[in-house]
Amino acid sequence: MKQFAELISALESTNKTNAKVDAMVHYLRTAPDSDKLWFLALFTGKRPKRPVNTNYLKQWALEIIQLPEWLFLESYSSVGDLGETLSLILPPPENDIQKTLSQWMDELLQLKDKTDDEKKIYVTESWNGLDYTERFIFNKLIGGSFRIGVSKKLLISALSKYSEIDSSQLMHSIMGKWSVGDMNFEDLITGTNINPDNSKPYPFCLAYPLEKETQELGNPEDWQAEYKWDGIRGQLIKRNEEIFIWSRGEELVTPQFPELVSALEILEGNFVIDGEILAVINDEVLNFNELQKRLNRKTITPKMLREIPVKVFVYDILEFNNEDLREKPLAERRKLLENLIEKHPVENIKISEIITFEKWEELIEIRENSRENNSEGLMLKQKNSHYHSGRKKGDWWKWKVDALTIDAVLIYAQKGSGRRSGYYTDYTFAVKKEDQLVTIAKAYSGLTDKEIMEVSRFVTKNSLEKFGPVRTVKPELVFEIAFEGIGLSNRHKSGVALRFPRILRWRRDKKADEIDDIEEVKKLIR
Fold first, then answer.
1. Do 130 and 263 belong together in one domain?
2. Domain for residue 170, yes or no?
3. Is 391 a residue whose pLDDT tops 70?
4. Which member of 92, 133, 178, 510 lies 3.0 to 4.6 Å from 478 by CB, making a disulfide possible if both were Cys?
5. Contact in structure between 183 and 37 (CB atoms under 8 Å)
């Protein structure tokens, strides 16, 4: 655990990419193999379920330090993170527990079957043998909320530097369904596990935002244009009569889309197809908010299947009858895909439309009007491009329509976590509804460090009420909020939900009575 704690401290203390990579490489070179595997599992989101209710953690800590609950809540609201607050308020350890990361993880896995009294003894004894950083990590692991600011790309870079294995092979090796209990680290990263499991997906090929004029892309005949749909990117896998659906976030979402499973059963052969899962009624693509109602549900009821039917618009084929097609040109892959789908047409699987054009100028109006069919813009793909692992600049571009924007006023603020724990960085915004304000969005990004400090000072001086870590503030600061889409929602007081809201700019030139009205905002819904 000490090695792992040193790694986390090193990652938290720098924003430099090379320093983060070097810290991970050093850990991989010094940690035992069993710890490396847990490192990889935790950094790819494969953490165990929470074995202890976090309310118990707070209760047991308060018993140890004899601190009034109101004072603890004040400390929690200032720090912004429960695991970190507990680490700070507990007394210095009296013992020094020396266990590897894998030993700790094995014990936490066994803890879920223990009684509450046994859990309490284990947790409090562990606290008494760990220093601050180790205790913080322990709290995050036991609370089931372990997150670290390392992207998958950064993780792959570190693994590649450590192992001297090509990054694309590494991406393929660590994706998919694997667990610590049935795998060892070296076999995993060297690809021993590639394709023994029928469910194994491929790394997704990703696009860069178009940052140049389309004329700079060259001859239009060399490019394929499609709509960019706002759904769930998925890989549809059928191997040896088994069917799997993977989201881009590497979640196995097969049970959430039974109608797609039925459709895939009809198609012949073994294949891996890339496409966009969308809510569609009468050939009309619905707002993403409708699709969201289908997600993360244990049971999909017949009523939900009727009211929010889904289809997948497929646009690429990566594997057919056990042949990896990713190195073939896109134009060739497209023909194979069309042949597969058109040979056995099914209701819920459609080929994504190719937009015909001769000149780049013809696409401008199509792109500008793309929201009319609930798409986000256009995709531009070189016809001779391979299906790369991750992003490769120059082959695939996403040419999105400009973001929608509204003016809203800040009404709630909460302090961030980690390096931002001393500042108010989590904001809730509202718009007008008659003579009242209704919340419309939360946003966490878009301000400079200097602006964050200014807003934090304003919140401190102008707080009206406290609800745990949340502060209600005078509705005076106006911000322009950008977002990708908007839809009706019964879960929000405003009656609408925004897609990917973020702060575009601080409108110092506007007063609170100049913000948008909810009825005007609803007119943005198509």
1. no
2. no
3. yes
4. 510
5. yes
Any catalytic annotation for residue 112?
no
pTM of the complete model: 0.67
One domain, residues 380 and 483: no
**CATH number, domain with residue 459:** 2.40.50.140
> What token pair was written down for 336?
């194979």
DSSP H helical segments within 101-229, as ranges?
Answer: 101-111, 116-127, 132-142, 152-163, 167-174, 185-189
Q: With CA atoms as reference, report the closest residue to 132 among 90, 77, 192, 180.
A: 90
Mean pLDDT score, 114-118: 91
Q: In whole angstroms, what is the distance from residue 57 CA to residue 122 CA?
A: 11
- Going by C-alpha positions, the residue among 483, 484, 486, 478 that lies closest to residue 511 is 478
Tell me what pLDDT residue 179 has: 78
Residue 373 per-residue DSSP state: G
CATH of the domain at 321: 3.30.470.30
Contacts of 517 (CB under 8 A, 6+ apart): 431, 432, 433
Q: Residue 324: what are its φ and ψ, rounded to 5°?
A: -75, 120
Q: Which two tokens stand for residue 341?
A: 């789908």
User: Are residues 491 and 510 both part of a single domain?
Assistant: yes
Task: Render pLDDT for 451-498 as a digit per residue (tens, 0 to 9).
Answer: 999 999 999 999 898 877 789 999 999 999 998 888 888 777 788 888
CA distances from 404 to 239, 499, 510 (A): 42, 10, 19
Distance between CA 171 and CA 204 in Å, rounded?
A: 10
Considering 88, 109, 142, which residue would you say is the last residue of a domain? 142
Which is the catalytic residue, given 228, 311, 400, 415?
A: 228
Which residue shows structure tokens 């060399």? 222
